Amino acid sequence: MDTGRVDINHVLMQMRAIKEQMNTANSQAVNPNSNVEQIQKPENIGNLDKVSAVDENEPPGFGEMFKAAIDTVNANQKHAGNLAQRYETGDASVDLPEVMIALQKSSVSFQAMTQVRNKMVEAYKEIMNMPL
Fold this sequence. Notes:
This protein has one domain (about 1-30, about 45-130). The chain has 4 helices and no strands. The chain has helices spanning about 1-30, 50-55, 60-90, 95-130. The chain is elongated.
């Protein structure tokens, strides 16, 4: 069951990187004389692994990291659903604890992604209410 822990750690690492990137963006917004990173174009959004392999000196953009996190949550949910279906149909190679762990991992990763989404919406609303 070590692979489940790796996936959760990967999601947590991505969330920390997103937070770090947001903190960097906030510090740059406070200091207008600092170098402002170019905003990632939608066509550049892709898998986090692909982005980091292209240029290791440039950190991946928020969009790439968020898409990779969503893809991880989606993969967790598909895996848990597949295990549950196999257990329900009587597959002897799947045991109940394995199914329960996969379902819990899927639930936790979805809840974490929902919290990130909620924080993003709050930040967007706050920015939109700022006076010009």
